[in-house]
Amino acid sequence: MNYTIGIIGAGHIGQALATHLSKTNYRVLISNRKGAESLQEVVASIGGSLKAADLKQTVEEADMLFLAIPWGGHEAFAKYLEGHTGKIIVDATNNIVSMFPLRVTDLKGKTTGEYVSQLYPGQHVVKAFNTLPYFILAKNPVNSGSEGNRVIVMSGDYAAAKATVVELAGMMGFATIDIGTLKEGKLQDPGGALSNVELIKMKANY
Predict the structure, then answer these.
(1) How is 170-194 classified by DSSP, letter by letter?
(2) What is the DSSP string of 79-103?
(3) What pTM value is reported for the model?
(4) Which residues does residue 151 pair with via DSSP β-bridges, in sequence order?
(5) Rounded to whole angstroms, how far apart are CA atoms 59 and 54?
(6) Does residue 97 contact residue 138 with C-beta atoms inside 8 Å?
(7) What average pLDDT values come out for the chain (206 residues) when binned by 10 residues?
């Protein structure tokens, strides 16, 4: 694939994603609400293929967008995507209100993937990279201690989009587990059985 990849959000999760994506062969743009100038230090510290860009540029030029924004920022960002369809949206967000104790926004029975997908009509949403704490996600995905690769859990309704994310995750050094459709992705939502669980796929030794 020959994509321009965009990262929306430059907090802990956004920077963790940028660290791994910048080591691929693809052009990677990172944006936030404050503008490209506010990201120069972040880009300099990460390096690789990472470039800072304004939201408008990233939305127009990226074929794949990684969303690492606060949960409450989805509706505002969705307006930037009006008129831009067919993009792969990798949703790394969670509907968390507070961590201690854990409180989440009531989605009326929907999974976070289903909810986000409704906000971005015309896009191909893949729920992924949302189950690991940022400090685990930021680590080298190739676990030298166990000779395996850290696992990214994913779900989605578009097979081709998921296949693209699987390929890119592999380039980043991750293994993947596809748990099915966005509706079946409840296991990866906050409080789900796969949330906040670090898995390592061992390398075959035979």
Answers:
(1) HHHT-EEEE--SSGGGGGGSTTSTT
(2) HHTTT--S-EEEE----EEETTTTE
(3) 0.95
(4) 175
(5) 9
(6) no
(7) 90 97 95 95 96 96 97 93 95 90 91 97 97 96 79 98 97 97 97 95 76
